[in-house]
Write a sequence for this structure.
């Protein structure tokens, strides 16, 4: 039921920023302009009603409660969800929360268990206790891991990798699997990854993860080694593919009701002035003209699949199309690792979840990456 850019004509993702406040101060947090702003339940209900009543051809809406830490405003969450459920809408919908997990009370848990059909929660968990505590203010022991695993068994944990925890990347992912979770992980945005030491460590940790997954075929590989990400590279059919739905299939409403292309363009992230300027950006085009692409990226072999975030681009470079080059070489290492992993999976006859045409595209792309980037 989760919306994605690939099916954005039928679904959309709407973020409701309930608060700018957070009970933690994570080392890699990109929200540098926190304040005491909160969204009223009445405003949140007005936005939900507007988006569900809109005649826009969309049949599915995901509403993401966002912060800061959205569970600081749990009473608003509860009121909005119950109010929505009591009404009838033609569109399907789901509510979603990403949380640090620290604030859950027994009463909250009871209510959340009763509403899993309309509200799902994803937990941010940055690996082992040591890794998580380094990134997230010694909060590991305050999280009820059993609650999230049993109540939301289909949700992966979200693991963000900082410079401090990069040397333990494989250990952290393996730990999360050991306690029953799939893992969605990524390098932290907006920090400087540009060092030979980081590159060497990243390569080593991805190699360890590949060996682990080859030895444990029953586990779903973490997102950083998702072989599906490379399948379009060999064909190079669409070098200007748009990788997200910011400003198109995504909208973010700030505490005061102001609407931005996505949460990364909010004043809490980029400051008031840059947030205002972002409202003038044109997100109507699905692709980019060649002259819009950063010159450094135009000849890059992995360009049409390289992970990029328009909001992070805007925050770090001032231009939604100009990537933060401090992560560029790390991305190349990641794609080389994915290519190697895909070849190994093919040799072990473990690409069976994909259609034959997809398997061929993945393998062709993997071989092309190895030939081109080595």
């Amino acid at each position: 039921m989760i919306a994605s850019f690939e099916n954005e004509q039928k679904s959309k993702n709407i973020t409701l920023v309930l608060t700018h406040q957070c009970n933690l101060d994570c080392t890699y947090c990109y929200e540098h302009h926190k304040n005491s702003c909160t969204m009223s339940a009445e405003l949140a209900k007005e936005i939900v009603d507007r988006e569900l009543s809109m005649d826009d051809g969309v049949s599915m809406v995901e509403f993401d409660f966002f912060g800061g830490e959205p569970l600081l405003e749990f009473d608003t969450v509860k009121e909005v969800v119950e109010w929505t459920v009591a009404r009838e809408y033609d569109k399907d919908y789901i509510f979603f929360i990403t949380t640090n997990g620290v604030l859950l009370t027994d009463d909250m848990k009871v209510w959340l268990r009763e509403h899993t059909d309309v509200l799902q929660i994803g937990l941010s968990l940055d690996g082992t206790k040591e890794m998580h505590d380094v990134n997230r203010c010694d909060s590991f022991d305050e999280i009820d891991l059993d609650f999230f695993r049993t109540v939301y068994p289909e949700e992966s944990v979200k693991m963000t990798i900082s410079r401090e925890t990069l040397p333990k990347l494989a250990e952290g992912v393996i730990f999360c699997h050991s306690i029953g979770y799939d893992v969605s992980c990524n390098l932290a945005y907006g920090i400087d990854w540009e060092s030979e030491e980081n590159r060497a460590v990243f390569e080593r940790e991805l190699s360890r993860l590949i060996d682990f997954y080859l030895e444990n075929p029953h586990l779903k590989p973490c997102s950083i080694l998702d072989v599906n990400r490379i399948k379009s590279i060999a064909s190079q059919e669409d070098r200007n593919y748009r990788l997200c739905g910011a400003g198109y299939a995504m909208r973010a409403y700030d505490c005061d009701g102001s609407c931005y292309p996505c949460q990364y363009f909010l004043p809490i992230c980029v400051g008031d002035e840059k947030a205002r300027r972002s409202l003038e950006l044109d997100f109507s085009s699905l692709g980019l003209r060649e002259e819009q692409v950063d010159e450094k990226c135009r000849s890059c072999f992995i360009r049409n699949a390289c992970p990029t975030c328009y909001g992070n681009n805007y925050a770090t470079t001032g231009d939604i199309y100009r990537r933060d080059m401090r992560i560029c070489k790390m991305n190349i290492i990641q794609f080389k690792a994915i290519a190697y992993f895909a070849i190994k999976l093919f040799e072990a006859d473990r690409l069976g979840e994909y259609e034959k045409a997809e398997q061929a595209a993945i393998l062709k792309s993997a071989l092309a990456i190895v030939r081109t980037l080595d």
User: Anything to note?
Assistant: The first strand starts at residue 11 and ends at 17.
